[in-house]
């Protein structure tokens, strides 16, 4: 079972209509700016795995009865902390994503838009205070966000930076060595 807690320092929503004729007309926002989002996730792997898969964000949005479109969401100076516990006698593995600065574009609940067929997340993230990640993550609006591609640029980092996660989840402790960097390309759908 997963638990989530979110705190936001500031969120600004641009272009909120003063009058909506009706909600069925939908909501179209040009921009949302989020500063200082802190997200805390905890997953207890000792509990049974859920039988149904959780929807991807765009997939969940497509279930909305109200048409929603946001041109741009800017997330700046944000952090995500993930803890995973898989044994009774272990301290949870900890993974931190900091310096999150991403731009999310073409968010739509109704499918492809004039801006294209993809909702895109692009930006930079720091993993475990050492590893720089360049993210280009795209959700296919033609498939209601159930399919995605991920192009992840991976910077260089000492392996020991990963110990806070690998020691307590995989029993793997790095003493030395360096990741020289690289690129990860993934194309997947909800079931793969």
Explain what you see.
Helix content is 7%, strand content 55%. By secondary structure, the chain is mainly beta. The radius of gyration is 19 Å and the shape is globular. 15% of the residues are buried.
Order of helices and strands: EEHEEEEEEHEE
Number of strands: 10
Going by helix content, strand content and strand pairing, the class is mainly beta
Low-pLDDT regions: none
Span between N and C termini? 20 Å
**Strand portion, in percent?**
over 45%
Shape: globular
How many DSSP helices?
Answer: 2
Q: Name the strands of the widest sheet in spatial order.
A: 1-2-3-4-5-6-7-10
Write down the overall mean pLDDT. 86
**What is the radius of gyration computed over CA atoms, rounded to a whole number of angstroms?**
19 Å
Main beta sheet: 8 strands, mixed
- Helix content, binned percent: under 10%
Task: Give me the secondary-structure topology.
Layout: E1 2-14, E2 27-44, H1 57-62, E3 68-85, E4 93-108, E5 118-127, E6 131-140, E7 147-154, E8 157-158, H2 163-170, E9 178-179, E10 182-189
């Amino acid at each position: 079972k997963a638990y989530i807690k979110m705190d936001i320092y500031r969120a600004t929503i641009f272009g909120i209509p003063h009058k909506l004729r009706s909600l069925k007309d939908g909501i179209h926002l040009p921009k949302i700016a989020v500063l200082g989002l802190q997200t805390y996730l905890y997953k207890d792997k000792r509990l049974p795995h859920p039988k149904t898969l959780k929807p991807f964000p765009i997939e969940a949005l497509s279930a909305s009865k109200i048409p929603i479109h946001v041109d741009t969401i800017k997330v700046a100076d944000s952090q995500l902390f993930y803890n995973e516990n898989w044994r009774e006698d272990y301290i949870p593995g900890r993974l931190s994503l900091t310096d999150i600065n991403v731009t999310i574009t073409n968010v739509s609940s109704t499918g492809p838009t004039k801006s294209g067929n993809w909702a895109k997340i692009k930006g930079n993230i720091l993993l475990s205070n050492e590893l720089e990640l360049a993210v280009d993550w795209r959700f296919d609006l033609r498939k209601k966000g159930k399919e995605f591609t991920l192009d992840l640029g991976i910077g260089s980092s000492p392996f020991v930076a990963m110990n806070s996660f690998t020691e307590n989840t995989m029993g793997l402790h790095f003493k030395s060595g360096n990741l020289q960097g690289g690129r990860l390309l993934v194309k997947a759908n909800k079931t793969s």
